UniProtKB/TrEMBL annotation:
Species the sequence originates in: Thalassolituus maritimus
NCBIfam families xref list: L-threonylcarbamoyladenylate synthase
A Pfam family annotated for this UniProt entry: Sua5_yciO_yrdC
Name by which UniProt lists this protein: L-threonylcarbamoyladenylate synthase
Domain of life, source organism: Bacteria
Residues annotated as domain YrdC-like: 14-200
Length: 207
């Protein structure tokens, strides 16, 4: 049975943020709000929780997981990026973008694309997600809350609890935060390429 925390979307209660962070630190699998939609989240490198996500979403081996970061200072630990790419990322974070980048050796193999060895990196523009990241002190592994057979992610915290309460340890209710995906920008080629058009304005990456 999952815990259910109602956290204020603009002024997250520090006590609840700490309790949520403790659940995740101890190996819990959580659903948290972001600036685009609710997402599954656990500690980076938590094999058991990650495997629960893979089973729940019926993901294939080539799925690109995303690391949710507080800011770009954490980027160099998990991804390789040159100065030009870094400036482009800085201009579009925080926000509704996921950037696909070459992964470093610090990324657990379970999280990266097996052949391309890439990882998604994202800095959310959401007060609850940022407070959680700050409290935990490290990035979170995240995955969209799109269930098998669905095209859109689950968006209502009460529906999420009713549907998944026996498969989760925590549901954070941060109110409505949308149900559209991020815009995914593949930064592994010579030029940035839009891999998925989502909420983020991709015009800056055109051409």
């Amino acid at each position: 049975m999952s815990q259910f925390f109602q956290i204020h979307p603009d002024n997250p209660q520090a006590r609840l943020i700490k309790q949520a962070a403790d659940i995740i630190r101890e190996g819990g699998l959580a659903v948290i709000p972001t600036d685009c939609a609710y997402a599954l989240a656990c500690r980076v490198g938590d094999k058991s929780a990650t495997e629960r996500v893979i089973r729940m979403r019926q993901l294939g081996a080539k799925h690109n997981f995303t690391l949710l970061c507080r800011d770009l200072s954490e980027l160099s630990i998990f991804a390789k990026v040159d100065n030009t790419e870094y400036r482009l990322l800085k201009a579009h974070t925080p926000g509704a973008f996921t950037f696909i980048l070459p992964a470093t050796r610090d990324v657990p193999r379970l999280l990266m694309h097996p052949k391309k060895r890439t990882i998604g990196i994202r800095v959310p523009d959401n007060a609850i997600a940022m407070a959680l990241l700050q409290e935990i002190g490290e990035p979170l592994m995240t995955s969209s809350l799109i269930m098998p057979g669905d095209e859109l992610p689950l968006s209502d915290p009460y529906d999420i609890r009713a549907t998944l309460e026996h498969q989760l340890d925590l549901v954070v209710d941060g109110g409505f935060c949308g149900f559209e995906a991020t815009t995914v920008v593949d930064m592994t080629g010579e030029l940035p390429e839009i891999a998925r058009q989502g909420v983020g304005d991709a015009s800056a990456f055109a051409g």
